[in-house]
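Final report, Chapter 2: Outcomes

The project's central promise was a pipeline that accepts a single protein chain and returns its three-dimensional structure in a standardized token representation, suitable for archiving and comparison. That pipeline is now operational. To close this chapter, we reproduce one record exactly as it appears in the project archive, with the input sequence first and the structure output second.
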Amino acid sequence: MKLFVRLFICVAILFCAAAIHAQDSDKPQDAEGCKDSPLVTRFPGGIINSCENKEFKQADFPLGNDKDGNAITKHLEGEYHSWDIATHEGVSEIQVFRNFQNALKAAGITIDYAGSPNDLVGHKGNTWIHIESKGTFYYQTVVTVKEMKQEVTADASSLNDEINKSGHVAVYGIHFDTGKSAILPESEDSLKQILALLNQNATLKLRVEGHTDNQGAAAPNQALSEKRAQSVVTWLTSNGIDATRLTAKGLGQTKPLADNSTDDGRAKNRRVELVKQ
């Protein structure tokens, strides 16, 4: 009889453990590979539906509207992380919004835009966060602003081959700060290859063209592309190239090579082109 009781108890314990395990396995789980942001905890009881982590990506964060009702955005590029997080039934948009508004302030994050009850944008140092509340779920995006590490550079030989083949070549190793025309130091390797190309071909004349993506208004993009092209010409002439061999032209966003609706497409459209004259 005692043996039977012991067996019954053991079976009961195993049954209960299996039932608890089954209940746990039925609970919603975070998407595979997704972890919480180190910047701010998730809304209590939230489940991560999906996430995205990129070494370098761009995003536009909302900052309200100007006096004419046009949307103002903050364009950011750098290390990128985003989450789609579910809350639970009964949670309102303003409930999520206020919780995060208070949490960000408590963490010393400056609130740059509070578009109640949906959009909340703040920053601390060079790290920016955007909370987009939908009530029963919300999007959280974090971008730490930094310059892209240039991993691919053109060489004089390949530049020469492409110019001889098609009369022009796109160069992607020349970088500028967002909205500025000063050439960044990491561009020097690519510039030196253009310099070598010109030194190896004493009769070659080039038009240096600046191109942008379609972010922002067309007129400022046109002016910016002109200044960037001129910066490249100035660098080349300051390094010994006769100014009569070079001209600068800005084309802004008028000649995209790829779809401006994607990050990769916009990156391809932001370029310097060399055109044989």
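Archive annotation: The first helix runs from residue 2 to 26.
This record, like all others produced under the grant, will remain available to the consortium after the project formally closes.
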